[in-house]
Design a protein that fits this description.
Beta Polymerase, domain 2, 327 residues, two-stranded antiparallel ribbon, alpha+beta
């Protein structure tokens, strides 16, 4: 664990504790919020993401007076997304303020103070939307951020939260993102984009370069509170996320359990390889490597490809209007 990152992560919660004193309507979002919902955080997050419907300039001004944080506004091309760099005692963090509307929130007690957070299913839907590159997702392909998104999805799933209404939250986020960004991407485009990103993470063997390079995996280790994340871990996590993306309700856990059993059955693995080969989702070399090195991922992909949502919705290749590169 990187000591500098640990100091910045601590500062995230110090700043959060101060700004909720200023206005308790602030909603805590992002990776820091997800990790705060876990019994024990599994990775550090050095950015503070919040949704706030009022004037962020006033919020930051009061924060400076109350807690001594200096601020510099970072570049943003969209007034609905306002970014700051905060610093105090040689520690810097990023504060990203958005105007996302969150359907349901709950109070979470963190380190002695309370803050509003979304339901866990909203976090899942939000992470899926972040992976919808070139539509409503991240404006740039950043391997380290993609790893964090996939990792956070799996952290949430490990707690087996209720998944009903996850689909509703996904649809809400697609609409909300389009509204805030001034775009008109269809849900089918966003689905295809998310699936494409996750599928590219399921690479066991590849002519160089990998979609997620080894350097990005190496850098991610510094955020972990313990252990390591290997490429095969990422492969299994991405396949698991694709499985969830196909169902987005409580059926997921039953199907995952079924996949775990089938991953130990040679005939079921051969069937999964055949189904995926017929669908031409992955190369023969990738499928063979998955069968040997990540059999559970192979079976999860089989269930995904048989039920994937992009096959069950009207698709269009029309690009959204004026997708702003706001960061």
């Amino acid at each position: 664990m990187n000591k500098e990152f640990a100091a910045r992560s601590k500062a995230v919660f110090e700043v959060l504790s101060e700004i909720v004193k200023i206005d308790d309507s602030i909603i805590f979002l992002g990776g820091s919020a997800i990790q705060a919902t876990l019994p024990e955080p599994r990775r550090l997050s050095i950015d503070l993401d919040v949704s706030y419907g009022k004037n962020p300039e006033k919020l930051v001004e009061i924060l400076g007076k109350m807690a001594g944080y200096s601020s510099v506004r970072r570049t943003s091309r969209n007034p609905n997304f306002v970014f700051y760099k905060l610093s105090k005692d040689d520690v810097e963090i990023k504060l990203d303020v958005s105007r996302f509307s969150v359907p349901e929130t709950q109070k979470l007690k963190i380190r002695g103070f309370e803050v509003l957070v979304p339901k866990l299913r909203y976090f899942l839907a939000a992470k899926f939307s972040s992976l919808a590159l070139d539509t409503i997702g991240r404006p740039e392909m950043e391997p380290s951020q993609i790893i964090k998104d996939v990792f956070d999805i799996n952290c949430i799933l490990d707690g087996k939260p209720p998944l009903e209404k996850t689909m509703e939250d996904w649809k809400h986020i697609v609409s909300n993102q389009n509204e805030l960004r001034g775009t008109n991407y269809r849900e089918s485009q966003c689905i295809e984009s998310t699936e494409k990103t996750l599928l590219r993470c399921v690479e066991v063997t590849s002519p160089p370069p990998f979609f997620i390079p080894q350097t990005a995996l190496g850098n991610f280790q510094e955020y972990l509170t313990s252990g390591r994340l290997l490429r095969l871990d990422l492969v299994n996590m991405a396949a698991r996320a694709l499985l969830l993306f196909a169902f987005m309700d409580d059926r997921f856990f039953d199907i995952e359990k079924k996949a775990q059993v089938e991953s130990r059955n040679r005939k079921k693995l051969e069937e999964a390889e055949r189904v995926l080969s017929e669908k031409s989702e992955l190369s023969a070399a990738q499928l063979k490597a998955l069968k040997l090195a990540a059999p559970l991922a192979l079976v999860c992909l089989k269930y995904w490809v048989e039920n994937k949502r992009s096959d069950n919705s009207l698709t269009t290749r029309t690009r959204g209007a004026g997708h702003p590169r706001f960061s």
